[in-house]
Amino acid sequence: MIYPIIKFPDPVLMKPAEDVTVFDKELKQLVADMFESMYEAQGIGLAAPQINIAKRLCIIDLSFKKDPAQKIVLINPEIIENSGKQHEEEGCLSLPEIREKVNRAFQVKVRAQDVEGKWFEIEGTELLSRAFQHEIDHLNGILFIDHLSRLKRDLVLRRIRKMQKNGEW
Ligand SMILES: [Zn+2]
């Protein structure tokens, strides 16, 4: 099933999500539906709050369907290590049309559970590191625009308000 993507400023995007505690068939179905919804929306990352499910679960596929080995499911993830810096452009399915450069760690190591509840660690640099940080932020109620300077963030909010007024949001 394809879920609609929740857009800013829906409150579900601004609050911390809850731990996943049950690893059952329903969870596997939810993960499958999240991939379907993400591909439909042309995304490479999606967090459960973006489909109105306030749970600590996110998915990433930088290959966009091309390489099944690149499908990543992170349940109850935590960043346990980070190093370096990068400053690259990001976008978000919940903030269509908005793209801004964001300060991120160059490398992160994440600890998470898989769909069976088994803990694992995964590391990423560059784009994968950005995706980890962006998606895990979603689980903490943080959006990429929250990392911008006050001035830039205000400009973005103004742009969104204008689009809302014109019925383009
Ligand atoms: Zn996002």
UniProtKB/TrEMBL annotation:
<dbReference type="InterPro" id="IPR036821">
    <property type="entry name" value="Peptide_deformylase_sf"/>
</dbReference>
<comment type="similarity">
    <text>Belongs to the polypeptide deformylase family.</text>
</comment>
<feature type="binding site">
    <location>
        <position position="138"/>
    </location>
    <ligand>
        <name>Fe cation</name>
    </ligand>
</feature>
<keyword id="KW-0648">Protein biosynthesis</keyword>
<feature type="binding site">
    <location>
        <position position="134"/>
    </location>
    <ligand>
        <name>Fe cation</name>
    </ligand>
</feature>
<dbReference type="Pfam" id="PF01327">
    <property type="entry name" value="Pep_deformylase"/>
</dbReference>
<protein>
    <recommendedName>
        <fullName>Peptide deformylase</fullName>
        <ecNumber>3.5.1.88</ecNumber>
    </recommendedName>
</protein>
<dbReference type="GO" id="GO:0006412">
    <property type="term" value="P:translation"/>
</dbReference>
<feature type="active site">
    <location>
        <position position="135"/>
    </location>
</feature>
<keyword id="KW-0378">Hydrolase</keyword>
<dbReference type="GO" id="GO:0046872">
    <property type="term" value="F:metal ion binding"/>
</dbReference>
<feature type="binding site">
    <location>
        <position position="92"/>
    </location>
    <ligand>
        <name>Fe cation</name>
    </ligand>
</feature>
<comment type="function">
    <text>Removes the formyl group from the N-terminal Met of newly synthesized proteins. Requires at least a dipeptide for an efficient rate of reaction. N-terminal L-methionine is a prerequisite for activity but the enzyme has broad specificity at other positions.</text>
</comment>
<keyword id="KW-0408">Iron</keyword>
<keyword id="KW-0479">Metal-binding</keyword>
<dbReference type="InterPro" id="IPR023635">
    <property type="entry name" value="Peptide_deformylase"/>
</dbReference>
<dbReference type="GO" id="GO:0042586">
    <property type="term" value="F:peptide deformylase activity"/>
</dbReference>
